[in-house]
Amino acid sequence: MTYPSFLSPFIINPSIPLRWYGFMYIFGIFIAVLIMQYAEKKTWIKFNYKVNKKGEKSGGASDFIFYAVFPGVIGGRLGYFLFYDPSGFLRPWEILGFYYNNGHFNFYGLSGMSIHGGLVVGIFGIYIFSRVYKHKFMDLLDIVTIPISSGIFFGRVGNFLNAELYGRVTNSILGMRFPLYESVGGYADWINLSPLLRPYTEPRHPSQLYEAILEGAFLFFLMYILTINSKKIKTGTRFWLWIMLYGLFRTLIEAVREVSEWRFGVLTAGMIYSIPMFILCLIMLIFIYTKKDKNKVKNNA
Q1: HEC string of 226-286?
Q2: How far is CA 215 from CA 107, 115, 167, 245, 277, in A?
Q3: For 158-214, what is each residue's pLDDT tens digit?
Q4: Smallest Cα–Cα separation from 247: which of 268, 272, 223, 267?
Q5: What DSSP designation does 201 have?
Q6: Residue 178 carries which DSSP code?
């Protein structure tokens, strides 16, 4: 397969530098707010609103997503440098998306995010929300598995539309030849070439789509189904299961990703960070479903 030439990393055209990846981030946040509003309407969650002296309410869906996303973005960015490129801390301007070249600072965007770092700091943000608005922390972690899945889906689709982060060379029928925009000076120069002269990669795994399907769409529908039937499962099931399956899927997909980060033998950095997620969460699920229910023990006494 060949990457469709009608797709472009730009939403409009190269003269207006609005890229799909950045747009998908914003769109994903918008969808996350809608999902939480829908969850409130379906009584899957009840927000504890606060009203100030002006009569303005806070503590609803948009505030919840802000508490989760804003720290998550910070954690994702810091996590990328901490886990994959520690030397970047010696050039702190790069954390903010600026790169020094030929005596000038240029903004290239926040290229490089770690979902592991984003999860840790994002969860801390949700904890703060639970304290401020008097929620059970684990109830919030359970429900957030739905919007975070949709966010991953849109983010990986954005990677595909940008023709970036594709996988390793493959001879399978799933292999796709991706355009090499930068090899000829960028997308604008690439698209102006004759179709016969446009450079492409060798057939590679479209690993962005693998992640969109498994880590995004599949987990979204699984968490949705479990949420509908949440009265039949224990609190914490969705959260620990989501983390466990994400760790599993990420580990499997790492085997076909084109990895530029460090590795330890056959294990990539992504595998090393994801395998413990799977093991820890499996232990937590076993613990949740094997511990005795104190209420039942009292009733049987």
Answers
A1: HHHCHHHCCCCHHHHHHHHHHHHHHHHHHCCECCCCCEECCEEHHHHHHHHHHHHHHHHHH
A2: 30, 12, 16, 8, 14
A3: 999 999 889 999 999 999 999 999 899 889 899 999 999 999 999 999 999 999 999
A4: 272
A5: P
A6: P
pTM of the model: 0.88
pLDDT-based confidence at residue 110 (cuts at 50, 70, 90): low
pLDDT at 5 over 50: yes
Element (H, E) at 105: strand 104-107
Q: Which residue has the tokens 């904890």?
A: 127
Which residue's entry shows tokens 């693998």? 210
- Answer yes or no: are the C-beta atoms of 249 and 183 closer than 8 Å: no
DSSP classification of residue 144: H
Structure tokens at 233: 């499962």
